[in-house]
Structure prediction request, 378 residues.
Amino acid sequence: MPTKEATAGPPPAAGEPAPGRPPGKDAAKAAGKATGVRHVPAGLLAAVLGAALLAALTFAVAWGSTDIAPREVWSVVLRRLTGEAPRPGTSDLIVWQLRLPRALLAAVVGAGLGLIGTAVQALVRNPLADPYLLGISSGASLGAVGALVLGLGAGGALGLGVSGAAFAGALGTFALVWLIARRGGSFSPLRLVLAGVGIGQFLTGFTSYLVLRAGDEQQTQGVLFWLMGSLGGASWDTLAVPALAVPVALLLLQARSRPLNTMMMGDETAAGLGVSPARLRRELFVVTSVLTGILVAVSGAIAFVGLMVPHACRLLVGADHRRLLPVSALFGAVLLVIVDLVCRVALDGEELPVGVVTSLIGAPALLYLLDRRLGRTS
Prediction:
């Protein structure tokens, strides 16, 4: 009778999943062993980030030109949530109508940028890829600037407004990049990146031309401020769509976390394990493009968040997308809430564009990550 060793068959080759184990789990585990880094438990990190987000939101609403005690902030929020009549005074107006929607929008946009960064880096299999690499943000910026310069900010003849025009520009760019990437019947990540970069640069140049054609200096300053990222236009109305889109995107991406893990082993191995890399990339492209258009429409172009957040989270929890995606969303939310608070209170009587602060943080972080990556491979 055959022995247990004889019936077990040969051990799996390097890079192949062990029998009876999900292939995505083996890929992520192998990537973690390759780095030689001990990671933080994802549940513990998520709990810490959740508490940090709650604290950041509290202080973001409490601090400003008029400071409000955190206890009063929560008192106003609880009264509103329970349907009680607001107390007379300015605290209710400041907390509920001005600062809370802005703080929540910062959290939602930060979470969305973290998700987009993680997905785009998997999409093009480049850990240094940025969410705006595909040119979608350039299309959104062109649409928004066109609406501002042409006087459609309040709705205009088409009823779009700045946000609607930005979203329309993002979708138009998405369609164009998609057609070029699909040329020849195949879907190539390299062609996708080249198409996105080329179209993005063209649209950026056209956006700069529209800025120069702006009718007055105040309008030009407003356009430039928006292009550098701003959450100053936050309201409960502008919060609604991104607050719905980001959780939906998280669920869609989380459902594809195992296929994303298999792609870490290469397209051929992923295809051998039953994953279609081309189909998965199409799905990722659609999700990231639509979400980018929604976020840029409400916040402008905020750089480096989608690049920094996935890298930081990989160092903490590893490359398994089942853990990486939700942790990246939480980390991005905390980061952007803090950055927006700094932008509001750093200068007395003035507000910094959010993109300026994220760039000041992101550029040194990128150099540090490059140094670590080159040092590891040398």
Notes: The two ends are 52 Å apart (CA to CA). The longest helix spans residues 91-123. The chain has 16 helices and no strands.
